[in-house]
Amino acid sequence: MRVSTIFAFRHIGTNPLGPLLRCTPIQVQKIQRARASSNATSSELEGARSYCLNLLQKYDSPSYVLQTFIPRTARDAYLAIRAFNVDIARIADATSNVTVGTMRMQFWRDAITKALAGSPPKEPAAVLLASAQENLQSRSEGIARLSKGWFLRIINAREQHLANQPFPTLVELETYAENTYSTLLYLTLSSLPLSSITADHVASHIGKASGIAAVLRGFPLIAFPPPPNHHSNQAAFGGVSAGGRHGAVLLPLDVMAETGVREEEILRRGADAEGLRDAVFQVATRANDHILTARQMLRNLRAGEDVGHDFEHQHEEGHSYSGREDSNAFAQLGDINRAFGVFLNAVPTTMWLEKLERADFDAFAPSLRSPDWRLPWKAYWAYTRRKF
Protein backbone atom coordinates (compact mmCIF):
# COMPACT_ATOMS: atom_id res chain seq x y z
CA MET A 1 0.00 0.00 0.00
CA ARG A 2 1.35 3.39 -0.94
CA VAL A 3 1.81 6.13 1.66
CA SER A 4 -0.64 8.37 -0.22
CA THR A 5 -3.26 5.65 0.07
CA ILE A 6 -2.64 5.33 3.80
CA PHE A 7 -3.29 8.99 4.41
CA ALA A 8 -6.54 8.77 2.43
CA PHE A 9 -8.00 6.99 5.48
CA ARG A 10 -7.68 10.07 7.68
CA HIS A 11 -11.40 10.93 7.46
CA ILE A 12 -12.73 7.43 7.99
CA GLY A 13 -14.15 6.90 11.48
CA THR A 14 -12.73 3.43 12.18
CA ASN A 15 -9.31 2.76 10.75
CA PRO A 16 -7.42 -0.52 11.22
CA LEU A 17 -4.12 1.23 10.55
CA GLY A 18 -4.31 2.92 13.96
CA PRO A 19 -1.20 4.88 14.95
CA LEU A 20 0.17 4.93 11.41
CA LEU A 21 -2.11 7.83 10.57
CA ARG A 22 -0.23 10.13 12.92
CA CYS A 23 3.19 9.26 11.50
CA THR A 24 5.09 11.22 8.90
CA PRO A 25 5.44 9.47 5.52
CA ILE A 26 9.06 8.58 6.33
CA GLN A 27 8.06 7.06 9.69
CA VAL A 28 5.30 5.05 8.00
CA GLN A 29 7.75 3.67 5.45
CA LYS A 30 10.15 2.59 8.23
CA ILE A 31 7.40 0.79 10.12
CA GLN A 32 6.10 -0.90 6.97
CA ARG A 33 9.57 -2.12 6.01
CA ALA A 34 10.05 -3.53 9.52
CA ARG A 35 6.67 -5.26 9.39
CA ALA A 36 7.31 -6.74 5.99
CA SER A 37 10.71 -8.20 6.94
CA SER A 38 10.06 -9.31 10.57
CA ASN A 39 6.59 -10.74 10.05
CA ALA A 40 6.94 -13.91 12.14
CA THR A 41 3.91 -16.14 12.43
CA SER A 42 2.00 -16.20 15.71
CA SER A 43 3.25 -19.73 16.39
CA GLU A 44 6.86 -18.64 15.82
CA LEU A 45 6.44 -15.72 18.19
CA GLU A 46 4.81 -17.91 20.82
CA GLY A 47 7.64 -20.42 20.48
CA ALA A 48 10.26 -17.66 20.82
CA ARG A 49 8.45 -16.24 23.85
CA SER A 50 8.23 -19.64 25.50
CA TYR A 51 11.90 -20.33 24.82
CA CYS A 52 12.96 -17.03 26.41
CA LEU A 53 10.76 -17.64 29.46
CA ASN A 54 12.21 -21.12 29.95
CA LEU A 55 15.74 -19.77 29.56
CA LEU A 56 15.17 -17.18 32.27
CA GLN A 57 13.48 -19.66 34.57
CA LYS A 58 16.48 -21.98 34.30
CA TYR A 59 19.40 -19.55 34.33
CA ASP A 60 18.13 -16.20 35.66
CA SER A 61 15.24 -16.79 38.03
CA PRO A 62 15.21 -13.21 39.43
CA SER A 63 14.49 -11.84 35.94
CA TYR A 64 11.88 -14.54 35.43
CA VAL A 65 10.08 -13.43 38.61
CA LEU A 66 10.40 -9.72 37.91
CA GLN A 67 8.95 -9.90 34.39
CA THR A 68 5.51 -9.83 36.04
CA PHE A 69 6.06 -6.17 36.96
CA ILE A 70 6.96 -5.02 33.46
CA PRO A 71 4.02 -3.49 31.51
CA ARG A 72 2.48 -6.09 29.24
CA THR A 73 3.11 -3.98 26.14
CA ALA A 74 6.86 -4.05 26.84
CA ARG A 75 7.14 -7.57 28.20
CA ASP A 76 8.29 -9.21 24.97
CA ALA A 77 11.10 -6.67 24.75
CA TYR A 78 12.05 -7.40 28.36
CA LEU A 79 12.11 -11.17 27.76
CA ALA A 80 14.18 -10.78 24.60
CA ILE A 81 16.65 -8.42 26.28
CA ARG A 82 17.09 -10.67 29.30
CA ALA A 83 17.34 -13.86 27.21
CA PHE A 84 20.00 -12.14 25.11
CA ASN A 85 21.87 -11.32 28.32
CA VAL A 86 21.68 -14.91 29.54
CA ASP A 87 23.05 -16.22 26.25
CA ILE A 88 26.06 -13.92 26.10
CA ALA A 89 26.74 -14.34 29.83
CA ARG A 90 26.95 -18.11 29.25
CA ILE A 91 29.31 -17.92 26.28
CA ALA A 92 32.43 -18.30 28.41
CA ASP A 93 30.88 -21.39 30.02
CA ALA A 94 29.59 -22.94 26.81
CA THR A 95 32.75 -22.52 24.72
CA SER A 96 36.14 -24.19 25.02
CA ASN A 97 38.34 -21.17 24.35
CA VAL A 98 38.34 -17.42 23.87
CA THR A 99 38.47 -17.67 20.06
CA VAL A 100 35.26 -19.68 19.91
CA GLY A 101 33.70 -17.30 22.42
CA THR A 102 34.65 -14.32 20.27
CA MET A 103 32.96 -15.95 17.28
CA ARG A 104 29.78 -16.40 19.30
CA MET A 105 29.90 -12.75 20.33
CA GLN A 106 30.15 -11.78 16.67
CA PHE A 107 27.13 -13.95 15.94
CA TRP A 108 25.17 -11.88 18.44
CA ARG A 109 26.40 -8.60 16.97
CA ASP A 110 25.09 -9.72 13.59
CA ALA A 111 21.87 -11.11 15.10
CA ILE A 112 21.12 -7.85 16.92
CA THR A 113 21.80 -5.80 13.80
CA LYS A 114 19.46 -7.96 11.72
CA ALA A 115 16.76 -8.19 14.39
CA LEU A 116 16.57 -4.44 14.89
CA ALA A 117 16.45 -4.01 11.13
CA GLY A 118 13.49 -6.40 10.98
CA SER A 119 15.26 -9.47 9.53
CA PRO A 120 16.16 -11.65 12.53
CA PRO A 121 17.98 -14.98 12.23
CA LYS A 122 16.22 -18.10 13.48
CA GLU A 123 17.32 -17.43 17.04
CA PRO A 124 14.37 -17.22 19.49
CA ALA A 125 15.61 -14.15 21.35
CA ALA A 126 16.32 -12.37 18.06
CA VAL A 127 12.88 -13.28 16.66
CA LEU A 128 11.17 -11.93 19.78
CA LEU A 129 13.38 -8.84 19.75
CA ALA A 130 12.45 -8.03 16.15
CA SER A 131 8.77 -8.32 17.00
CA ALA A 132 9.23 -6.15 20.10
CA GLN A 133 11.03 -3.50 18.05
CA GLU A 134 8.18 -3.46 15.54
CA ASN A 135 5.63 -3.22 18.34
CA LEU A 136 7.56 -0.37 19.99
CA GLN A 137 7.71 1.63 16.78
CA SER A 138 4.00 1.11 16.24
CA ARG A 139 3.12 2.17 19.80
CA SER A 140 5.35 5.26 19.59
CA GLU A 141 4.24 6.20 16.06
CA GLY A 142 7.69 5.46 14.66
CA ILE A 143 9.61 7.59 17.14
CA ALA A 144 11.00 5.19 19.77
CA ARG A 145 13.31 2.30 19.06
CA LEU A 146 15.72 0.03 20.92
CA SER A 147 19.31 1.22 20.67
CA LYS A 148 21.65 -1.03 18.73
CA GLY A 149 24.54 0.82 20.37
CA TRP A 150 23.44 -0.29 23.83
CA PHE A 151 23.24 -3.95 22.76
CA LEU A 152 26.72 -3.71 21.26
CA ARG A 153 28.03 -2.05 24.42
CA ILE A 154 26.89 -5.08 26.44
CA ILE A 155 28.46 -7.50 23.97
CA ASN A 156 31.75 -5.59 23.91
CA ALA A 157 31.95 -5.46 27.71
CA ARG A 158 31.26 -9.19 28.02
CA GLU A 159 33.77 -10.00 25.28
CA GLN A 160 36.55 -8.11 27.05
CA HIS A 161 36.18 -10.47 30.00
CA LEU A 162 35.92 -13.80 28.18
CA ALA A 163 39.36 -14.74 29.51
CA ASN A 164 38.29 -13.98 33.12
CA GLN A 165 41.04 -11.44 33.71
CA PRO A 166 40.78 -9.50 37.01
CA PHE A 167 39.50 -5.95 37.16
CA PRO A 168 42.44 -3.55 37.70
CA THR A 169 40.44 -1.29 40.00
CA LEU A 170 37.08 -1.03 41.70
CA VAL A 171 36.27 1.83 39.32
CA GLU A 172 36.89 -0.54 36.38
CA LEU A 173 34.43 -2.99 37.93
CA GLU A 174 31.88 -0.18 38.20
CA THR A 175 32.44 0.62 34.52
CA TYR A 176 31.82 -3.02 33.62
CA ALA A 177 28.59 -2.98 35.64
CA GLU A 178 27.49 0.26 33.93
CA ASN A 179 28.18 -1.20 30.47
CA THR A 180 26.27 -4.41 31.20
CA TYR A 181 23.64 -4.32 33.94
CA SER A 182 22.87 -0.59 33.81
CA THR A 183 22.63 -0.79 30.04
CA LEU A 184 20.13 -3.66 30.29
CA LEU A 185 17.95 -1.33 32.36
CA TYR A 186 18.35 1.52 29.84
CA LEU A 187 17.13 -0.82 27.11
CA THR A 188 14.14 -1.87 29.20
CA LEU A 189 13.23 1.76 29.93
CA SER A 190 13.39 2.57 26.22
CA SER A 191 11.00 -0.31 25.49
CA LEU A 192 8.23 1.27 27.62
CA PRO A 193 9.01 3.75 25.92
CA LEU A 194 10.43 6.25 28.43
CA SER A 195 13.12 8.83 27.77
CA SER A 196 13.92 10.37 31.14
CA ILE A 197 17.25 11.54 32.53
CA THR A 198 16.03 10.86 36.07
CA ALA A 199 14.88 7.32 35.27
CA ASP A 200 18.17 6.59 33.51
CA HIS A 201 20.06 8.07 36.46
CA VAL A 202 18.30 5.80 38.95
CA ALA A 203 18.77 2.84 36.60
CA SER A 204 22.51 3.56 36.39
CA HIS A 205 22.95 3.25 40.16
CA ILE A 206 20.77 0.13 40.42
CA GLY A 207 22.57 -1.46 37.48
CA LYS A 208 25.99 -0.75 38.97
CA ALA A 209 24.91 -2.30 42.26
CA SER A 210 23.50 -5.36 40.45
CA GLY A 211 26.60 -5.77 38.29
CA ILE A 212 29.02 -5.53 41.21
CA ALA A 213 26.94 -7.98 43.25
CA ALA A 214 26.79 -10.32 40.26
CA VAL A 215 30.58 -10.43 39.99
CA LEU A 216 30.84 -11.14 43.73
CA ARG A 217 28.23 -13.86 43.41
CA GLY A 218 30.09 -15.51 40.54
CA PHE A 219 33.51 -15.09 42.14
CA PRO A 220 33.68 -18.55 43.83
CA LEU A 221 32.58 -20.29 40.61
CA ILE A 222 35.32 -18.52 38.67
CA ALA A 223 37.97 -19.28 41.29
CA PHE A 224 36.94 -22.94 41.50
CA PRO A 225 35.24 -23.78 38.19
CA PRO A 226 32.74 -26.63 38.09
CA PRO A 227 32.92 -29.16 35.22
CA PRO A 228 32.14 -27.73 31.75
CA ASN A 229 28.47 -27.01 31.01
CA HIS A 230 27.52 -27.23 34.66
CA HIS A 231 25.07 -24.45 35.53
CA SER A 232 23.28 -23.23 38.60
CA ASN A 233 19.80 -21.77 38.45
CA GLN A 234 21.40 -18.35 38.85
CA ALA A 235 24.15 -18.50 36.21
CA ALA A 236 23.10 -15.33 34.42
CA PHE A 237 22.50 -13.45 37.68
CA GLY A 238 26.05 -14.48 38.63
CA GLY A 239 27.29 -12.25 35.86
CA VAL A 240 30.25 -14.33 34.70
CA SER A 241 30.58 -17.99 33.86
CA ALA A 242 33.24 -20.39 35.00
CA GLY A 243 33.59 -22.66 32.01
CA GLY A 244 36.11 -25.47 32.14
CA ARG A 245 39.12 -23.21 32.57
CA HIS A 246 41.62 -22.86 35.39
CA GLY A 247 40.55 -20.83 38.36
CA ALA A 248 40.82 -17.04 38.31
CA VAL A 249 40.14 -14.28 40.83
CA LEU A 250 38.10 -11.37 39.49
CA LEU A 251 38.24 -9.14 42.56
CA PRO A 252 39.65 -5.67 41.79
CA LEU A 253 43.43 -5.67 42.13
CA ASP A 254 43.52 -2.37 44.02
CA VAL A 255 41.15 -3.75 46.65
CA MET A 256 43.18 -6.95 46.94
CA ALA A 257 46.36 -4.93 47.42
CA GLU A 258 44.74 -2.72 50.05
CA THR A 259 43.40 -5.69 52.05
CA GLY A 260 46.53 -7.80 51.64
CA VAL A 261 44.85 -10.74 49.92
CA ARG A 262 46.76 -12.64 47.24
CA GLU A 263 45.35 -14.58 44.30
CA GLU A 264 47.45 -17.68 45.01
CA GLU A 265 46.20 -17.73 48.59
CA ILE A 266 42.59 -17.62 47.43
CA LEU A 267 43.16 -20.43 44.92
CA ARG A 268 44.90 -22.49 47.59
CA ARG A 269 42.80 -21.80 50.69
CA GLY A 270 39.47 -20.58 49.30
CA ALA A 271 37.30 -18.86 51.90
CA ASP A 272 40.09 -19.09 54.49
CA ALA A 273 42.48 -16.87 52.54
CA GLU A 274 43.75 -14.07 54.74
CA GLY A 275 42.14 -10.71 53.96
CA LEU A 276 39.54 -12.16 51.58
CA ARG A 277 36.51 -11.19 53.66
CA ASP A 278 37.83 -7.65 53.99
CA ALA A 279 38.17 -7.44 50.20
CA VAL A 280 34.65 -8.81 49.66
CA PHE A 281 33.35 -6.32 52.25
CA GLN A 282 34.89 -3.37 50.37
CA VAL A 283 33.44 -4.44 47.03
CA ALA A 284 30.01 -5.22 48.52
CA THR A 285 30.00 -1.83 50.25
CA ARG A 286 30.39 -0.10 46.90
CA ALA A 287 27.40 -2.03 45.53
CA ASN A 288 25.33 -1.13 48.58
CA ASP A 289 26.35 2.53 48.23
CA HIS A 290 24.71 2.62 44.80
CA ILE A 291 21.47 1.19 46.22
CA LEU A 292 21.52 3.78 49.01
CA THR A 293 22.13 6.55 46.47
CA ALA A 294 19.15 5.44 44.36
CA ARG A 295 16.94 5.39 47.46
CA GLN A 296 18.07 8.89 48.45
CA MET A 297 17.28 10.15 44.96
CA LEU A 298 13.69 8.92 45.35
CA ARG A 299 13.37 10.51 48.78
CA ASN A 300 14.61 13.82 47.39
CA LEU A 301 12.06 13.76 44.56
CA ARG A 302 9.21 12.94 46.92
CA ALA A 303 10.24 15.90 49.03
CA GLY A 304 10.01 18.13 45.95
CA GLU A 305 13.77 18.51 45.73
CA ASP A 306 16.42 17.85 43.09
CA VAL A 307 17.87 14.34 42.98
CA GLY A 308 21.04 15.72 44.55
CA HIS A 309 23.77 15.11 41.97
CA ASP A 310 24.33 15.08 38.21
CA PHE A 311 23.99 12.01 36.00
CA GLU A 312 27.56 11.34 34.90
CA HIS A 313 26.55 9.33 31.81
CA GLN A 314 23.91 11.68 30.40
CA HIS A 315 26.05 12.77 27.44
CA GLU A 316 27.03 9.25 26.39
CA GLU A 317 25.68 7.48 23.32
CA GLY A 318 22.01 6.55 23.52
CA HIS A 319 21.00 9.10 26.15
CA SER A 320 18.77 11.69 24.48
CA TYR A 321 16.05 13.50 26.39
CA SER A 322 14.52 16.02 23.94
CA GLY A 323 14.75 19.01 26.25
CA ARG A 324 13.28 17.22 29.31
CA GLU A 325 16.46 17.53 31.39
CA ASP A 326 15.04 20.48 33.35
CA SER A 327 11.61 19.02 34.20
CA ASN A 328 10.42 19.63 37.76
CA ALA A 329 10.54 17.14 40.61
CA PHE A 330 6.85 16.26 40.19
CA ALA A 331 7.34 15.31 36.52
CA GLN A 332 10.52 13.39 37.35
CA LEU A 333 8.72 11.46 40.07
CA GLY A 334 6.01 10.61 37.56
CA ASP A 335 8.66 9.09 35.30
CA ILE A 336 10.03 7.07 38.22
CA ASN A 337 6.61 5.73 39.18
CA ARG A 338 5.82 4.79 35.59
CA ALA A 339 9.09 2.87 35.27
CA PHE A 340 9.16 1.39 38.76
CA GLY A 341 8.89 -2.21 37.58
CA VAL A 342 12.23 -1.77 35.81
CA PHE A 343 13.89 -0.67 39.05
CA LEU A 344 12.88 -3.82 40.91
CA ASN A 345 16.26 -5.31 39.99
CA ALA A 346 17.33 -3.54 43.16
CA VAL A 347 15.28 -6.03 45.21
CA PRO A 348 17.17 -9.30 44.50
CA THR A 349 20.46 -7.38 44.60
CA THR A 350 19.67 -5.98 48.05
CA MET A 351 18.46 -9.36 49.29
CA TRP A 352 21.69 -11.04 48.17
CA LEU A 353 23.89 -8.33 49.73
CA GLU A 354 21.99 -8.77 52.99
CA LYS A 355 22.61 -12.53 52.86
CA LEU A 356 26.29 -11.84 52.22
CA GLU A 357 26.40 -9.60 55.30
CA ARG A 358 24.73 -12.29 57.43
CA ALA A 359 27.42 -14.70 56.18
CA ASP A 360 30.06 -12.27 57.48
CA PHE A 361 31.13 -11.55 53.89
CA ASP A 362 32.15 -15.14 53.20
CA ALA A 363 31.52 -15.27 49.44
CA PHE A 364 31.83 -19.07 49.57
CA ALA A 365 28.94 -19.55 52.04
CA PRO A 366 26.50 -22.19 50.71
CA SER A 367 23.51 -19.98 51.63
CA LEU A 368 24.51 -17.53 48.88
CA ARG A 369 24.05 -20.12 46.13
CA SER A 370 20.38 -20.89 46.66
CA PRO A 371 17.43 -18.90 45.27
CA ASP A 372 15.51 -16.80 47.76
CA TRP A 373 11.87 -17.93 47.99
CA ARG A 374 10.92 -14.49 49.39
CA LEU A 375 11.66 -12.64 46.14
CA PRO A 376 8.12 -12.65 44.69
CA TRP A 377 6.68 -11.28 47.94
CA LYS A 378 9.50 -8.74 48.42
CA ALA A 379 9.16 -7.57 44.82
CA TYR A 380 5.38 -7.17 45.16
CA TRP A 381 5.81 -5.20 48.39
CA ALA A 382 8.41 -2.93 46.75
CA TYR A 383 6.24 -2.39 43.67
CA THR A 384 3.04 -1.52 45.50
CA ARG A 385 4.79 0.83 47.93
CA ARG A 386 7.20 2.24 45.34
CA LYS A 387 10.16 1.47 47.60
CA PHE A 388 13.17 -0.81 47.19
From TrEMBL:
Biological process (GO) annotations held by this record are: mitochondrial respiratory chain complex I assembly
Localization per record: Mitochondrion inner membrane
GO CC terms: mitochondrial inner membrane
Keyword tags? Membrane, Mitochondrion, Mitochondrion inner membrane, Transit peptide
Q: Which Pfam families match?
A: SQS_PSY
Q: What is its main location?
A: mitochondrion
Q: Would you say which domain of life the source belongs to?
A: Eukaryota
**Looking at the keywords, is Cell wall biogenesis/degradation present?**
no
The text of the family note is: Belongs to the NDUFAF6 family.
Q: What is this protein called?
A: Squalene/phytoene synthase
Q: Which organism is it from?
A: Viridothelium virens
